[in-house]
Amino acid sequence: MTTAALNTISQSALKNRPRDGIRTFARVSAFGTSAIIILILATLFLQSGPAIFTASDSLFTARWNPAEGVYGIVPMVFGSLFVMVIAMSLALPIGLLAAMAISQMRHQGLRRLTKSALEILAGIPSIVYGLIGVAYVSIWVAGAFDLQSGRIILTAGLILAVMILPTFLSLSEDAISSVPRAYQENGAALGLYPYETQRAIILPAAAPGISSAALLALGRALGETMAVMLVIGSLDRLPRPLFNPLSSGQTITSKLGREIGESAFGSTHFSVLVLMSLILVTLTIALTIAARHIVKPGSPS
Amino acid sequence: MSRRAANALYYGLTHTALLLCAGILFCLLFAIIWQGAQAISLEFLISRARDFGTSGGIGFQILGSLLIVVTAAIVVLPLAVGTAIFRQSFIKSARRKNTLDTILYALNAIPSVTYGIFGLIFFVNILGTGLSWFVGSLILAMMMLPTVTLASHAAMQSLPSGYAENAAALGLTRGEVVRRVILPQSAHGIVTGLLIALARAIGETAPIMFIATAFSGTGIPRSLLEPVATLPTHILALAQQSTNPQALQNAWGASLTLVAFVALFSALAFFARRHLTRLSQR
């Protein structure tokens, strides 16, 4: 008998056996998981439709005033980007330097301790960061810059930097540690200082992993709500002058957190808020998918 | 700059950065524990909140938080395990595997506030449930889904391929292989993933604050469609009256309690990862 014939027989034997429920169960679960994401995106899309039709002339302006039917989302989008840039420009260099220090540690116990400490830091709920921002950081910032209120864009950026630091630090440390040990040993054998080995050999090899960690941290920063909402001051205007971090502001997420519960379902106001949420989701999903694609080609992990 | 100086600068900078991180961690934990300890007493933990949270305790907030997240865990468990089994045993084409992975990572990427907005539109308004703790559980279950699924699947994938092949060679159907071999051998991963997801879910505020919680006047819910009070939303309400020292102190107390729950679930996850090893390794 040929192999092909054997295969056909064994296939049909498998098919004729009684089927149990596991296959159906697994299939239904996977279908349900896929349905959830489609349902979420479709719901947001349908609910943000009215905003595009009825508020289209004011949507891309910098003025927000629902009482007059003016819904400019520019201040919120700008605020999200501004806060994100502040947070990233603090968290990236500090995180990367600390990750290099951790990866250089020879003592395994100490390294494991540092990693668990990072997990603790990442586990603190965002509302608790918000409370710390309200009770300490905003007051320090107000004192340092002699302001009436410390609930400003800079405070939100500082808190956010601390919140994304553990994620970025931990992931980029993984990327650095996954570079084979021999690379470093070869660098040392060539007479390079540890700094030179790191810069010329280890960092380029770990670069895809580090950029992917940065993109994930970026997505986290854009989507963070509670802590930002409590310390940013909730002012629906562009800062004056534009790049003044000492002004109060508003991010997409803080706007959503503050207003979605108060706006009437089905109104233009509600619909514009949902549209902002749709913009946000599109960005964070795109960042995550991009982060996955960076790591894939040519990396062993 | 000489090479030696550059190297010294590198050491200095990296270790300063590390010390800075350690300092931040220390200050945060110190603030949470120090401030929280002054507010917490046995009475604070079991009595009900009075005067808009400025006096009394957080008894119902603790109950509400636990009710919502434990229900969410019960809801998500079969869905996540089923999806992981599907990914592991019933998909052949690499493209469909990749699609399912992308769906899971996309679910993971959705910001928590968006889950809340989806719940508000779909459940509270379109299905007309009103404020309901059970809707909060469903939304948290959706948020936990990628974490639990990916952890379960990672455990299934780490099984030696010989296990499933041997079982199939002994004449077990694919369903039997899943039930008799894959599920029991990957139980530790499922439990660990569930506990990690619980630790994250109990601290979430944004997904439940529009749809599942009320600040005052809640007790133990008598039906699925009633709001409850929870720890994170309680902290939010108190933090917004931060000029009142009494409110602030109770917010610290609730924060320490919340962080303690996160730590408890994380510690259990750590324990599960270390001690519930594969059956075959016992």
Description:
The complex is a heterodimer of chains A (301) and B (282). Helices cover 73% and strands 1% of the residues of chain A. Chain A is mainly alpha-helical and 301 residues long. Chain A has a domain at 75-254: Orthogonal Bundle (MetI-like fold), CATH 1.10.3720. Chain A is globular and about 70 Å long. In chain A, 45% of the residues are buried. The model of chain A has no long low-confidence stretch (mean pLDDT 88). Chain B has 282 residues and is mainly α. The radius of gyration of chain B is 23 Å and the shape is globular. Chain B is built from eleven helices and two strands, in the order ααββααααααααα. Chain B has one domain: MetI-like fold (Orthogonal Bundle). In chain B, strands 1-2 form a two-stranded antiparallel ribbon.
Strand content of chain A: under 5%
Strand order of the largest sheet of chain A: 1-2
How many strands, what sense, and barrel or not for the largest sheet of chain B?
A: 2 strands, antiparallel
Gross morphology of chain B is: globular
Helical percentage of chain A: over 70%
CATH 2nd-level architecture of the domain at 75-254 in chain A: Orthogonal Bundle
What is the CATH H-level superfamily of chain B?
MetI-like
CATH topology of the domain at 75-254 in chain A: MetI-like fold
Number of DSSP strands of chain A? 2
**Number of beta-strand segments of chain B:** 2
Q: Estimate what percentage of residues of chain B fall within beta strands.
A: under 5%
Major sheet of chain A, described briefly? 2 strands, antiparallel
Helix content of chain B: over 70%
- How many structural units, i.e. domains of chain B? 1
User: Kindly, what is the distance between the CA atoms of the first and last residues of chain B, rounded to a whole number of angstroms?
Assistant: 58 Å
CATH class assignment of the domain at 75-254 in chain A: Mainly Alpha
Order of helices and strands of chain A: HHEEHHHHHHHHH
Q: At CATH's second level, what is the architecture of chain B?
A: Orthogonal Bundle
